[in-house]
Amino acid sequence: MKDFPLFRSGEAGAAGTLLMAGPLLLFAVTPGMQPLAIVLILMALPMGLCVSGLACGGGPMAAGLLGGIGALYLITGLDGALLGAVYLLPIVIAFLVCILRRIPFWKSCAVMIGVHVASITGCYLILQQMAGGQLFEVAGDLVLGALEGWEGTDSLLYSFYQYGLIQVPDAMKDTVLVPVMGGNVLSDAARADMLLSLRALINNLVTTFVPSFLAGQSILGGVGSVFLSIRFGDAAAKGRDYKQVLDDKKELQAPDFPDLGMPPIHLWHLPRGMGWKVGVALIVGTLLQSSGSVPLAIAGVLLNGGATAIFTLQGVAMINFMQKMKGTRLGWRIAIPLILYMTSMLSIVGIFDQLNNFRGLRKPRQPKEEP
Q1: pLDDT digits (tens, 9 = 90+) for 282-338
Q2: What are the two backbone dihedrals, phi and then psi, of residue 179, each rounded to the nearest 5 degrees?
Q3: d(CA 198, CA 168)
Q4: CA-closest candidate to residue 54, choices 219, 203, 304, 232
Q5: Which secondary structure element, helix H or strand E, spans residue 179, and what is its range?
Q6: What is the pTM of this model?
Q7: How far apart are the first and last CA of the chain?
Q8: Are 55 and 230 a contacting pair, CB within 8 Å?
Q9: Kind plus residue range of the DSSP H or E element containing 180
Q10: Is the backbone of residue 256 left (phi > 0), alpha (psi -120 to 50) or beta?
C-alpha cells in the first residue's frame, strides 16, 4: 500500500517502532509505573498509532498496537489485553479506511469520533459485565486494596483530609491523630472512616470520569488523530522528498500525500447556527450536573464534555490565527495552546471567538427587510 508502506524509511521505521512500543512495555514491567502505562494507552496511544502510521509506516503502527496490547497483558492479564484490542483495533481500522479511501477531512473526523465513542462504550459495557454491574464500586475496592499495602497510605489520607477531599465524623475530628514516639499517626478509627470516605470519592470520580472521557476523548481524539497524522505525515513526506533530491540530484516534486483536503487550522470555525446549539448544550449540561439526579448528572457531563471539546478545537484555531498574524515561532505555536489546554482556557477562547467573530470568518447577519 502506497500510503502505508511497512517503513517510510529505515530511520523513521526504527525510531517509530522504538518510540511507540518501547516506553509502554518498559512502564508495564517497572514497579509503580503501571498506572502511567495505562493512562498513556487510554489517552495518547490511539492518536500516536495514527500519527506513526502516516509519518513512519505500517510497521511502527503495528508495533505500537501490539506494544499497547502487550503492556496491558503484562499489567492485567488476558482480560486487559482483550479490552485493549477492543479499544484500539477499531480505531486503527477506521483510520486506515479513511486514508486509503481518501474520505474528506471533516467526514473522516466524524468517522473517527464515532469509532472512538463505539470503542470506549464497548469497553465500558464489557467492564460492567465483568464487574457484575458494579463497575464503580469494584474500582473503589481495587484502589483501596492497593492502598492497604502501601507505606504512604496514612500520609495520603491525611493530605486528602486537610484539603477537604475526604471527611471524618465531627466527633472524631479531635482524635484524628494520636501521638507516638517521634510524632503522630492516624488513629485506627480515623483511618477506617477516611478509607470509607475515599471509597465514596473514588466512586464519584469514576462516575464522572467515564462520560467525560467518552465525550471529550472521542471528539478531541477523533479530530486530533486525523489532523496530527496529516500534519506530521506531510512534514515527514516533504522531508524525505527533499533528502532524496539531495541524494539523487533530481527535481523536487510535491509528494502524493493523502491530506484529505484538510483546511488550514487557523480557518477552522463553527457556523453560527451550530455554535449556538453547542453553547446551549454547554449551558444545559452544566445545569444538569447540579440536578441531584445521577442519570441527569451523567447526561450533563456528556453534554458539557462534548461542548467543551468542540469549543476547545475552536480555541486552538483562534490561537493559531493570532499566532500566524504575529509571526510567532513554531515552538511557541505548540507550547501556548498546550499551556492553555492544561489550564482549561482554550474552550473559553473558543467561546469568545464564537461570540465575537474575531477572525471574520462568518458572514455578518443580514438585516431583515421590512414589508
Answers
A1: 888 888 877 777 677 778 888 888 888 888 888 888 888 888 888 878 778 778 888
A2: -75, 140
A3: 10
A4: 232
A5: strand 177-180
A6: 0.78
A7: 62
A8: no
A9: strand 177-180
A10: beta
